[in-house]
Design brief:
about 625 residues; alpha/beta; eight-stranded antiparallel beta sheet; binds fructose -6-phosphate
């Protein structure tokens, strides 16, 4: 989704703001813009396309780069098509105020009509231009300073936002505010300079001190002065909590890989290890998860667990359903957060809601847990981004320790989510006694082998590339799996479609004969996950059914499989493990396959069209 960067200080603001926008490209966007103030004039440059397109314009006109204060934006279109005019930043009617905005102002239409009736004119179709004019109107009417005008205007809007506002008449100041969309402020030495950004990655090399605004807060940032943070609703001053960033530059760079996605696929063995490290002592059979341990009675007395998530995280939730029901014998329901929040669900205080989210900012998942919380449920967050909105909204939780995931297509987030959820299922099974201690020990020891097995699997990358070459021009693909690997089939299909734009469907293998089998002919590749312990014979029968209709079969099997070798067109072997943990392995070749197909088709793997990394709007 949209990204914001900004700088105020003594340095040239342009390279900081523009390089910052490049760091935020992973969020997904379709246009870019920057405002620079050179001490006298505002220069606004914006264009449809990428930050590189923006640079082409500014490189031809040096004055557009001058100044020590600037704000930048990458836009993911919501109101109005992606074009130069709708791109941010936006001027107010007078040309004095400038804004960049992430999020959606839901009541913009009503406000716009009122402003038009009072003589305001609008150039763009955006809700953002409405907001900046509302701020201007309030400022004039109340004869107040920018900070106050922003605050009063925000009390009139409904929706979500992270904004940064500049006023030509107060050029040593930026006003930022947040409701629903994240914004971080980097604090320079002695308050001599400040950085703003949607996350800390744009300023990590300049400062390790950051303030993350909370929902409903507004900050006035003045060069050389301490930041003032206020509550938008009641004007109360709040202590600006300065946190030390743990993020390092190499974590957010490609480190020699062609794409972030490939780097992140290869990081999975480390990410899985980082996620279970400190949470289990495999030889002693100990699992330590404070978020679960401190709330054990709640889990043990729960009527059911409801998992809410979107996209890949929802797939991890489906794996968790199999894990928790099988191991801990607690009923689990898995819901799309976007459906759950609007279907008047029945929730009681004896429900536990687990929200799974890499970004921790997904609007639907956040809204789903707010709803469940208001009805008394206990909320447990499984997030990757520390301090994210979902993590903060949860009563307890467990972070995945995947490190920053920058490729839009989720990879290491998925496997680390499954790692956390597996440990949770085991911890609950241990506490409930639904698994014997020796069984738990065996699971933990098996889990410990997974990182090395992931590394082993990655060694067959060139074989996967060969398979990718064969199927890269397919128009449709089918992915089949059963049990623990049914969600992996869904995830495999999602990975392929989102980065290569090839139509792909995931199905539980046995469902094939209830419809999708009609699609199978000699042009249809079918990727079948057939691990030896997972309803193996039944999946073999499904493979035979595909074969007899001339479908092409790529089978993911456990090492040593002899039966499927004779039937399938291609075989990908995974190392032997417990069936419950096979998703951590079967998913790896499917990620690689999607990656190579997309690269061969010349697609933008890290920033696929129309997609955003963190979906902060509905
Ligand atoms: C797919 C993908 C998306 C996300 C979904 C949820 O590769 O990345 O489907 O999984 O948007 O995002 P989070 O996990 O941040 O809530």
């Amino acid at each position: 989704m949209c990204g914001i960067t900004g700088y105020i200080g003594q340095r040239d603001a342009y390279p900081i703001v523009v390089n910052g926008l490049k760091r935020l490209e992973y969020r997904g966007y379709d246009s870019a813009g920057i405002m620079m103030y050179d001490g006298e004039k505002i220069h606004l440059t914006k264009t449809k396309g990428k930050v590189a397109d923006l640079e082409l314009i500014t490189n031809n006109d040096e004055k557009r780069k001058k100044g020590n204060i600037g704000i930048g934006h990458t836009r993911w279109a919501t109101h109005g098509v992606p074009n130069d005019t709708n791109s941010h930043p936006h001027f107010s009617h007078s040309g004095d105020l400038v804004i960049v905005h992430n999020g959606i102002i839901e009541n913009y239409d009503t406000i716009k009509k009122a402003l038009i009736s009072r003589g305001y004119e609008f150039k763009s179709d955006t809700d953002t231009e409405v907001l900046i004019n509302l701020i201007e109107e309030v400022k004039k009417k109340e004869n107040c300073k920018l900070g106050k005008a922003v605050q009063l205007a925000l009390t009139q809007v409904v929706g979500a936002y992270a904004i940064a506002v500049f006023d030509k008449n107060k050029p040593n100041e930026l006003v930022v505010a947040r409701l629903g969309s994240p914004i971080a402020i980097g604090v320079g030495k002695d308050n001599e300079e400040f950085f703003i950004a949607s996350d800390a990655s744009p300023f990590v090399e300049f400062t390790k001190d950051a303030i993350y605004l909370e929902d409903g807060e507004l900050a006035i940032i003045k060069k050389g002065k301490e930041i003032k943070v206020r509550k938008i609703n009641d004007d109360k001053l709040v202590d600006a909590n300065i946190q030390e960033l743990e993020l390092s530059l190499d974590q957010i760079e490609k480190g020699g890989y062609d794409h972030f996605m490939l780097k992140e696929i290869y990081e999975q063995s480390k990410a899985i290890k980082d996620t279970y490290r400190g949470r289990m002592l495999a030889n002693e059979g100990v699992i330590k998860m404070s978020g679960v341990d401190n709330n054990l009675p709640k889990f043990l007395n729960a009527d059911r667990i409801i998992i809410v998530a979107c996209g890949t995280s929802w797939h991890a939730g489906l794996v968790a359903e199999y894990l928790i029901e099988d191991m801990a014998r607690i009923p689990v329901e898995v819901e799309y957060a976007s459906e759950f929040r609007y279907r008047n669900p029945i929730i009681t205080p004896k429900d536990i809601v687990i929200a799974i989210s890499q970004s921790g900012e997904t609007a639907d998942t956040l809204a789903a847990i707010k709803l469940a919380k208001s009805q008394g449920a206990f909320i447990f967050g499984v997030c990757n981004v520390v301090g994210s909105s979902i993590a903060r909204e949860s009563h307890a939780g467990a972070y995945t320790h995947a490190g920053p995931e920058i490729g839009v297509a989720s990879t290491k987030a998925f496997t680390t989510q499954i790692t956390v959820l597996s440990l949770m299922a085991l911890r609950l099974a241990q506490a409930k006694g639904t698994l014997s201690q020796s069984a738990v020990n065996e699971y933990l020891q098996t889990m410990q082998q997974i990182p090395n097995q992931v590394d082993e699997l990655l060694k067959i990358d060139s074989k996967i590339q060969d398979i990718a070459k064969v199927y890269k021009d397919s128009k449709n693909c089918l992915y089949l799996g059963r049990g623990f690997n049914f969600p992996v089939a869904l995830e495999g299909a999602l990975k392929l479609k989102e980065i290569s734009y090839i139509h792909a469907e995931g199905y539980p293998a046995a469902e094939m004969k209830h419809g999708p089998i009609a699609l199978i002919d000699e042009n249809m590749p079918v990727f079948v996950i057939a691990t030896r312990k997972g309803h193996y014979d039944k999946v073999v029968s499904n493979i035979q059914e595909i074969k007899s209709r001339k479908g092409k079969i790529v089978a993911i099997v456990m090492e040593g499989d002899e039966t499927i070798k004779d039937i399938a067109d291609h075989i990908i072997e995974i190392p032997d493990t417990k069936e419950a943990f096979t998703p951590l392995l079967t998913t790896i070749p499917l990620q690689l396959l999607s990656y190579h197909i997309a690269v061969m088709l010349g697609k933008n793997v890290d920033q696929p069209r129309n997609l955003a990394k963190s979906v902060t709007v509905e």
